[in-house]
Amino acid sequence: MGIVEEAHNLRVLGSGQQVIVLAHGFGTDQSVWKHLVPHLVDDYRVVMYDNMGAGTTNPEYFDFERYATLEGYAYDLLAILEELRIGSCIFVGHSVSGMVGAIAAITRPDLFTKLVMVGASPRYLNDVDYYGGFEQEDLEQLFDAIRSNYKAWCSGFAPMAVGGDLDSVAVQEFSRTLFNMRPDIALSVAQTIFQSDTRQILHLITVPCHILQSVKDLAVPVVVTEYLHQNLGGESIVEVMSSDGHLPQLSSPDIVIPVMLRHIRYDIAA
Asked: Which regions form coiled coils (predicted)?
């Protein structure tokens, strides 16, 4: 097993001709795709991996400088595709991984036939003529809460992010993966994500994009999807789903999985 494979807990399932790469968001790991994968393995070769810093990865591999920007994660994705000798894939990116896939697709558009973004945002902070959902003060409070008592913060953040009650399986699942992260790494990753701004490069994305979004999402307001749609350089399509929360593939699989499958199989240009 190569270092890339080992570091990211790479898993390849199925044996189809077409490759699908599934990439998770903050506080989760590849287990967030458990409801989707069974529907893919008969028709596709499915690649899953854990972002560096996830609780399932070795914290010794986490380079705070490298992962201070989203480019660090994009380079990891390109290294994974190279390691597995993947010449073309459909990339499904949840949350921050939607933008990570976008950055990678600007660098190597030949490797991506389409991007499916789930709950992705180019910027979380509000700005002039832009509504991202957060003020700087909100973020400072978030970071302070992570610093002061990580376990307590996880307990409060998980149900808000998932949009379910404390007893729901999805909230428990997200709480588990969130709590598995080392607190200093979780803080660093949160700062990188919430302070990122990829608006200036959206016009460089020429790969077709499918933008999927919950109607109610603590992290990403619905208006962000329209901003993405209007500013991407290539063709794009938006679907706002009747799901609640930032991890709809985990909390509302009955609603979300059929939508995701339709967009994975549907070609905008057709």
From this structure: none
The superfamily in CATH containing domain 3-122+198-265 is: Alpha/Beta hydrolase fold, catalytic domain (3.40.50.1820)
148/145 Cα distance (integer angstroms)? 5
Indicate the domain borders of the chain: 3-122+198-265
Beta-ladder partners of 117: 93, 211
* 137 contact partners, CB below 8 Å, separation of at least 6: none
pTM of the model: 0.96
pLDDT tens digit sequence for 112-160: 999 999 999 999 999 999 999 999 999 999 999 999 999 999 999 999 9
Give percent of the chain with pLDDT exceeding 70: 98
- What residue type is assigned to position 240 of the chain? V
Residues serving a catalytic function are 95, 217, 246
DSSP assigned state of 157: H
Give which of 112, 115, 23 is closest to 73, Cα–Cα. 23
Query: In this model, does residue 268 exceed pLDDT 80?
Result: no
DSSP single-letter state for residue 42: T
Written as six digits, the tokens of 102 are: 């976008």
